[in-house]
Design a protein that fits this description.
By secondary structure, the chain is of the alpha/beta class. Helix content is 48%, strand content 16%. Strand 3, helix 5 and strand 4 form a beta-alpha-beta unit. The relative contact order is 0.13. Bound molecules: (2Z)-2-iminopentanedioic acid.
């Protein structure tokens, strides 16, 4: 494969899609040698084919707000690759959502889902609907309108959406109800469902737990221990919540968490009821962490700043793409950071990743480190198919085994001559192989 030509063609074909180009470039740069050593991939034009989503659905979502005014949003579902299983991936409701966002996330999802070893293809969807400050009635009417259109394109054997930013248990419930109303079927068409109606134990915790299990692998690789390590998180949503719970359980100390309005520094550690309070704040969808400092005297609030300026051993971005830039990386490095684990999707800019890798900081990309969420969605799909429910212990053990396996697979394909583990390269090659080989086996279908 000709990396330069591929990138030039891709830029020409996808103008004004910087996120998609960023995600694609990272993959291409890290798989190029592997692809060139294995001629079957070029023979079947696998790289060119994997870069093109199989289908993009774009639709209008009209709904009525509490004032009786008509609102119009855009809905999307990018069905990126179905080679190894039904399309699978979350739905994001956030004002920043564009076709570019959806394309980059669906592309990442294909590699991530492959890494889980479960039979799931890659997809992503969502809307530019902004849940901030919306009433429950408004959220429900939006979700119903969104699903009225989306249901035409999804199903338990074709495409199984889940949550992401702005979509939690409540929204999944509203969308599931509407799917069921239209189709008259109670099936595993969404994951992240409530426990009473087909959801899986541990799914809410899974992304955060999984990232910490992955981190444990990284620590073990360096013969290091999690005990007493200082941690900074970003984002106070479901992912940061799960990570904080597991970090506390394993003896690490979360000292900082940021939200859209600034960050909280609490040298006593963000533990127990404080973690529950972060979750409560998140549930209000008001996008503020400031009230935390009013409630807990040990906490300080830094308006408009990010938690990356705090001296920590471990940084775990848990919010949104490109939330940790080169400057943040340099500050973290100067402060002696040892591990950066993306629990968000593409949480670090390309320049930040380069800076961290240059400084030999152990860096885990989202598609490997945050795969625990979708992996547990895969386990929810299995339970739905078998019409049974596993215990929390059973699900957690499977999740842990999957994350350990992803970690080891990254090491296998990402170990460099000097012993440094390039987790980005490892994840991209390992994720690529399974999808590529399935595509070759299935002929020129997509
Ligand atoms: O980015 C992700 O992997 C998710 N939002 C979870 C997707 C899923 O299908 O559980």
């Amino acid at each position: 494969m000709d990396l330069k030509k591929l990138m030039t063609d891709l830029e020409a074909k996808n103008p004004a899609q910087p996120l998609y180009l960023q995600a694609a470039k990272e993959v291409l740069e890290t798989i190029v040698d592997f692809v060139n050593e294995n001629s079957q991939y070029d023979k079947y034009a696998i790289v060119e084919r994997i870069l093109e989503p199989e289908r993009i659905v774009k639709f209008k979502v009209t709904w009525v707000d509490d004032k009786g005014q008509i609102q119009i949003n855009r809905g999307f579902r990018v069905q990126h690759n179905m080679a190894i299983g039904p399309y699978k991936g979350g739905l994001r409701f956030h004002k920043s959502v564009t076709e570019d966002t959806m394309k980059f996330l669906a592309f990442e999802q294909t590699f991530k889902n492959s890494l889980t070893t479960l039979p799931m293809g890659g997809g992503k969807g969502g809307s530019d609907f902004d849940p901030t400050g919306k009433s429950e009635g408004e959220v429900m009417r939006f979700c119903q309108s969104f699903m009225t259109e989306l249901q035409k394109y999804i199903g338990p054997e074709t495409d199984v959406p889940a949550g992401d930013i702005g979509v939690g248990g409540r929204e999944i419930g509203f969308m599931y109800g509407q799917y069921k109303r239209i189709r008259g079927e109670h099936v595993g068409v969404l994951t992240g469902k409530g426990l009473e109606w087909g959801g899986s134990l541990i799914r809410p915790e899974a992304t955060g737990y999984g990232a910490v299990y992955f981190l444990e692998g990284m620590l073990k690789e360096k013969k290091d221990s999690i005990k007493g390590k200082r941690v900074a998180l970003s984002g106070f949503g479901n992912v940061a919540w799960g990570a904080a719970l597991k970090l506390e359980e394993l003896g690490a100390k979360v000292v900082a968490i940021s939200g859209p309005d600034g960050y909280i520094l609490d040298e006593d550690g963000i533990t127990g009821e404080k973690i529950a309070y972060m979750d409560e704040l998140n549930a209000t969808r008001n996008n503020v962490v400031a009230p935390f400092a009013k409630k807990y005297p040990s906490a300080k609030f830094f308006a408009g700043k990010r938690s990356w300026e705090v001296k920590v051993d471990i940084a775990i971005p848990c919010a949104i793409q490109n939330e940790l830039d080169e400057n943040d990386a340099k500050v973290l490095i100067a402060n002696g950071v040892k591990y950066v684990v993306e629990a968000s999707n593409m949480g670090c800019t390309a320049e930040a990743v380069t800076a961290l890798q240059k400084a030999k900081v152990a860096f885990a990309p989202g598609k490997a480190a945050n795969a625990g969420g979708v992996a547990t969605s895969g386990l929810e799909m299995s339970q739905n198919s078998m019409k049974l429910a596993w215990t929390a212990k059973e699900v957690d053990e499977k999740l842990n085994a999957i994350m350990t396996n992803i970690h080891d697979n990254c090491v296998k394909h990402g170990k460099e001559k000097d012993g440094y583990i390039n987790y980005v390269k490892g994840a991209n090659i390992a994720g690529f192989i399974k999808v590529a080989d399935a595509m070759i086996a299935q002929g020129i279908a997509y």
